[in-house]
Amino acid sequence: MSSRPPLIDLHRHIDGSVRLQTILELGRQHGIALPGLTLDELRPHVVITTPQPGLVEFLAKFRWMTGVLADYDACRRVARECVEDAHHEGIRYIELRFSPEFMADAHGLDSSRVTAAVIEGVREGEAATGIKAGLIGILTRNYGVERAWRELRALLDHRRDIAALDLAGDEGKWPPELFVEHFKKGRDAGWHVTVHAGEAAGAQGIVTAVEQLGATRIGHAVRAADDPAVMDLLRDRRIGVEANLTSNVQTSSVPSYASHPLRHFLEAGLLASINTDDPGISGIDLPHELQTAAPAAGLNENQIVQALENAWETAFLDPEEKGRLRGKK
Prior knowledge:
48% helix; alpha/beta; TIM Barrel; 14% strand; 8 strands
């Protein structure tokens, strides 16, 4: 197979990518008590080094990242820095996702203004680095059905700057069928749909996400490997699978890199890609996932290249822009 295409990451959370230095600086600026006053003291409280019992325990690590988002300028800053960090990793195109309610929660911010600040920060990052970033708005399932409507309205206030709608959070307690009407509104707004499914709950959630929420990509989807019919569904409908190797080990969604189903997905012809999820919490970046995690998961060079090609194919971009970003036009 030919050399690797330009680097691309389709699944990265802004609020899971806050720099440790930024946490320290925002904590000092806003008088927020932190569990450490230096990088070395703070790191064990934020960055995961061993697998957690499950997804909920992994999500608890977000506490210190969202806890310093005390105003809209802080939200703008962390969004801009996400783009800058992607540039430093050599990424050509990145899709960044965020939950405005989740980012607003710790300090009672307005979620529509949080959305505006994130958009501004991302655009600043694009202008400073020259890379392209798409934005995906998240509905956080843990907040429940009614609050999801408020979050959706905040995103719809800025619909032209959002490329897609996502559903994330505690998949086990909040299945996708609860949010069917929300996603209908999102599709009516012209957005693409990607859904976290098959990570902390079974394969049936993947089916619901595709057939009822209109997902054309699935985040994680590791449980698809348990059901041949779901594998067929993903392959036959050409649904993108946003794989996150290190994250899945750290959430105990899989017991090890070697047991991750990504290689199986690629061998079965699924449009699976390699992504970072929450690099600030996981302590990784995209080069690590490609150079260390992917080989540990049994991928050879051709399969890594295929995963990158799959990411470009399933990116929420029109064909002309894909070609321009890849340098073909």
